[in-house]
């Protein structure tokens, strides 16, 4: 099957000398006379150091920009004087595409915007669509969706903590945390068959009910995950290097943060206890017992503490959700939205017509509009739908939390050192797929 | 088991008891109507969310009042966006979503812009600094000018983008130009064009460029200005 190939290396190839060492290539060619490195006579001229500012461009192809962000920085020495962010390298026109899709057909697109939080986006989308259709969900689905939201909050924060620790110079937590992330992805795969792009929900229900024994897997995760989390956090929390690279950086005061529209851990680290789950509850979050962690300084270290505490609170919510999960169907009993069972669609004429019409024409919500926000790991994620009564939305707007959070980065980095820009940028927890959409 | 019920008119009734229309309005709507009179055109409640339509001339004063008034305190700007309907006769709507974090209230403001008229609304960046990118994106996607925005450039698309405004309904899904034309343009694109004059000049780097590159950049910007003037 595999063709065998032999690669022969001739030592006489140009570029290698007789000992097999690379030749020193000529740097500049001027006509026929090649100027090689060792032929430059005398010492290099001293560069003229003036009090001039310097322009540094980070990205879009830079691992520390967490995607394709481009930052243009004006430096005075090593201090950032001015920062101009450039975005749009991943722009795909999700909102435009949504205007040409039926509601259930848009759900796969929500996987791909904030791809670290796909199940959470799926849930947020159907919450908005269900408001627009004027339908609800079954009690079982409500609890299953809470599980999805909290699992995706945990995996998103795990990626954040892992990649940020790599940015700042700690590699071990990255590996430990990604192992736990794998466990969550295994759970998601067992449930919906996909790991990253889950498409786990449908308008009016779920793609599938949880398989047998799935809850035991979740219980195992809930039991073991805090241990890994605490181990990793213990490595960082009182670590002098970690503290030195995070404390006091990129601080935003509470009024500044509210005025800039920050949300999620970014806002709460500044001391504003705004959490959509508490202030504008959905999925019966008001009946769960959990705390909203709030920082005091609003710097990178506080954002780290807030996110870590949020993971602990998510574990608490998951424990409660496992206890209260009721039996029953996952899909609502509404033929306008829910497909008939497959065995009926292939055996009964009425069900087949029903299936055909629902797939081809799509369910139609009444004309109207709604904005539904959830607390995503990045902050307030909102979907704004406008319907004119047809099966496709007139407007589907994503309110991306990390887009608004990132827009405040000039305020956060100006006055700090260039090396701190990496830490501050990491603390925003950006996902460019969501920012550019 | 949440089966969906519907009333005698066929309108669905949600389990959380949010009716399609007729829910209690946000009290701010009445306050605005009393204070701004004719500048508040109408208000409506859909799915429990209050929408207030205001004139574009009054919009800045309305948002300033909502932000500053101690009884309202809409201190959080959630979103700025726009809606264009498939019905060509309906005006374009610019939408502001506001939250009062203290009062836990949510309000939607709208300004209707007739399609034939000039598309502009006042910028609220002096009230909410978070409006910066939201307004730029709206300009980028719909071509609505936010008067007073200090840096109203394209955000997600590049500055040389010539095809128009993608979220407008007259913009085809695949873009205005054919795939081959788009490819031709991409291949012919000059990478230097991605660096705006403003960006280069912030560190006086422009003056340290080679003479020929400077001439090309100056020529291009003069060319762009000529095109905009036409």
Q: What does this molecule look like?
A:
The complex is a heterodimer of chains A (437) and B (230). Chain A has 437 residues and is an alpha+beta fold. Chain A has a single domain, classed as Cytochrome-c3 Hydrogenase, chain B (Orthogonal Bundle). Helices cover 45% and strands 12% of the residues of chain A. Chain A has 17 helices and ten strands. In chain A, the strands form four sheets. A three-stranded antiparallel β-sheet of chain A has the order 3-4-5. In chain A, a hairpin with a 7-residue loop joins β9 and β10. In chain A, α2 packs antiparallel against α3 and α4 packs antiparallel against α16. The longest helix of chain A is centred in the middle third of the chain and has 30 residues. Chain A starts with 27 loop residues before the first strand and ends with a helix. The N terminus of chain A is likely disordered. With 230 residues, chain B is α/β, with parallel strands linked by helices. Chain B has two domains: 166 residues, 2-Layer Sandwich (Beta Polymerase, domain 2), CATH 3.30.460.80; 41 residues, no CATH class. Helices cover 30% and strands 21% of the residues of chain B. Chain B has a five-stranded mixed β-sheet. Chain B is elongated.
Task: Produce the secondary structure layout.
The complex is a heterodimer of chains A (437) and B (230).
Chain A: E1 28-30, E2 33-35, E3 54-58, E4 70-76, E5 79-86, H1 94-98, H2 103-113, H3 118-133, H4 139-168, H5 172-192, E6 201-202, E7 205-206, H6 214-237, H7 240-246, H8 254-259, H9 265-269, H10 276-279, H11 300-324, H12 342-345, H13 349-360, E8 368-376, E9 379-387, E10 395-399, H14 401-406, H15 409-413, H16 418-427, H17 432-436
Antiparallel strand pairs in A: 1-2, 3-4, 4-5, 6-7, 8-9, 9-10
Chain B: E1 5-6, E2 12-13, H1 27-36, E3 40-46, E4 49-54, H2 56-68, E5 76-83, E6 92-100, E7 105-113, E8 120-122, H3 131-142, E9 145-147, H4 179-188, H5 197-201, H6 211-229
